[in-house]
Amino acid sequence: MTIREEIEQLKKEKNAVILAHYYVRPEVQEIADYVGDSFYLSKVAVGLKEKTIVFCGVSFMGESAKILNPEKTVLMPDMAADCPMAHMASAETIEKIRSEYDDLAVVCYINSTAELKRHSDVCVTSSNAVKIVKALPNKNIFFIPDRNLAHYIAGLVPEKNFIYNEGFCIVHEYMEVEEIQEAKAAHPEAEVLSHPECPAKVLELSDFVGSTSEIIAQAGKSDAKEFIICTESGVLYELQKRNPEKKFYFTETTPICRNMKKVTLEKVLHVLKTGENEVFVDDKLREESKKPLERMLELAK
Ligand code: 13P
Ligand code: SF4
């Protein structure tokens, strides 16, 4: 039996479903039942009929799936696949800002630990942040952990007063403006599609800014034949699958999230076989961190 056949068989035997983010390896996306951006995956995780969820992504994704579905078994192919940005804020800073501002909402990007979510009022993803921040009654917004996404959203919701936190994604933060300019010079007809985790200087060079699934949708809708993609290169699999006639380029230094790439087919097979790497969140933390996640799902409707 091939590894894919073994995974298929075990999925049935164990009543399991596989969720994958667009940044994981192509062969992992290929065997997944659902592939998408962070918002899609958190919505899909709610209401699945299978008993076990194998989450092919980084820790905060599996953790959020468990928080929203405590009755399910959530397995991570690699427990060490963590997002550094998820830790780039602190409960102390949140409480300090709370004491300094009235009429404040702590808005927590879903790329964060459950501990940070528990201290927040609402979660957002890059595809629903504008809608949710606009819908909040509060004037002051402390946006954690990502400062780049915060600045981007602040530009689109000027009626709010943003307070920034010094977090960033180690992949998007280091996208080089010179390399994007070189790619533009080499492909002058190409449309530049970027993720809002990129710094403002990258977004200024872009024709379109959106989450991974919004970038993929834009590439499909656009009349352009060539695209420069400023986000993690795992999106190439879906971009090519949907648009075989179009061309996609990345910067010379290919943006790669080493944590997302830790998820391999062998590790998916291993956790399905053994039930290892189960995600546990203690009851109190789960109850408290569930509130901002559920508020996100409600406000994003
Ligand atoms: P989205 O897929 O929601 O755009 O998130 C990007 C990301 O960095 C996930 O880690
Ligand atoms: Fe975290 Fe960036 Fe990797 Fe996404 S791409 S998991 S934000 S390090």
Automatic annotation (TrEMBL):
One of its GO terms (cellular component) is cytosol. It catalyses: iminosuccinate + dihydroxyacetone phosphate = quinolinate + phosphate + 2 H2O + H(+). One of its GO terms (molecular function) is quinolinate synthetase A activity. Its cofactor is [4Fe-4S] cluster. It comes from the Bacteria. One of its GO terms (biological process) is 'de novo' NAD+ biosynthetic process from L-aspartate. Coiled coil: none annotated. Transmembrane segments: none annotated. Pathway: Cofactor biosynthesis; NAD(+) biosynthesis; quinolinate from iminoaspartate: step 1/1. It holds the Pfam family NadA. Its EC number is 2.5.1.72. Gene3D superfamilies: NadA-like. Catalyzes the condensation of iminoaspartate with dihydroxyacetone phosphate to form quinolinate. This is Quinolinate synthase. It comes from [Ruminococcus] torques. The gene is nadA.
